[in-house]
Amino acid sequence: MTEHDTGPERNERAQGKAGEARPREVAGENGAQVSTDGMANGAQEAAIPELVIISGMSGAGRSTAAKCLEDLGWFVVDNLPPALIPTMVELGARSQGNVARIAVVVDVRGRRFFDNLRESLADLDGRGVTRRIVFLESSDEALVRRFESVRRPHPLQGDGRIVDGIAAERELLRELRGDADLVIDTSSLNVHELRAKMDAQFAGEEEPELRATVMSFGFKYGLPVDADLVADMRFLPNPHWVPELRPFTGVNEEVASYVFNQPGAKEFLDRYAELLRLIAAGYRREGKRYVTIAIGCTGGKHRSVAMSEKLAARLAAEGVETVVVHRDMGRE
Question: Were both Cys, which of 88, 96, 217, 296 would link to 327 (CB 3.0–4.6 Å)?
């Protein structure tokens, strides 16, 4: 693993036009007219999205790095032609802060447009856009092994060998690698270690967040296909058989009270929440940021709904960003 930070060199390029206060229009390679009026205005300058360009060798982990930034809340665009990067930044600036950070994956799949990258970077520097280049590097041996393991050709090998495509790609990307702010050698890294490297660079000092979806469902409608964890509430008496509770759902206070007054209900909530704390810590270490917890009962109307509401409240109180979804409530 090697990392090189050439940020000061880039900052020197960014000086000059970035300080202009005079309104002007810039025409990019794609012909879009982009106004840079008011670069000295603090409010408008703050609206310009932060930009990260992810590039590097095919097979070195660009997709993993991009997914990591997506999980951190970045707006990720894969294989965007370099000439369109300034337009993407402009669209983000118009989003009123909804798109504050953009990551763009640029690679040899867009080699017809690759020559436009340097012009686009100069255009962005002239606007004062904060941008970084992350370059994923790997040894020839590691890249050959990865391509052979998935039985796919290198995008530049043509009628030659994998090593021929790797050599051609290195030559094509040589200048971009020299301009990179961060170079990560993934030769000896697995997916989790690469994600940890990206987290260290872009997640800040805070521990990576875990976002949970707590979903109630009915077993008679089938298991949720996207569930990471499934718990079964059918060990509790069913309010469906209580005539005065049958018309209501688990969000009703009387139904919830009935459910949690049953033997084992409160104990399950306490112990399952404790188990989820253990699991959540492991998920964070492994770089997993999203977890779907499915809570089921027969029809997904009473017990699972009541337990999902309580469990979600418990997770939220412990600092986990939580969303509650009642998949099957109302289907009867």
Answer: 217
Choose among 87, 193, 83, 92: nearest CA to 136: 193
Three-state secondary structure call for residue 234 = coil
Determine the Cα–Cα distance for residues 255 and 59; give it in Å rounded to an integer. 54
Q: How far apart are CA 273 and CA 231, in angstroms?
A: 12
- Which residues are CB-contacts of 179 (< 8 A; sequence separation ≥ 6)? 6, 9, 10, 121, 133
Regions of the chain short of the pLDDT cut 50:
1-46, 205
Return the bridge partners of 52, or none.
103, 132
Structure tokens at 173: 């990307």
* Run of H or E including 104: strand 101-105
Distance, CA of 83 to CA of 106 (rounded, Å) = 11
- Tens of pLDDT along 66-119? 999 998 889 999 888 888 899 899 888 888 778 888 999 988 765 555 667 888
Whole-structure pTM value = 0.55
The SS3 call for residue 321 is strand
The pair of structure tokens assigned to 324 is 């509650």
Contact call for residues 329 and 305 (beta carbons, < 8 A): yes
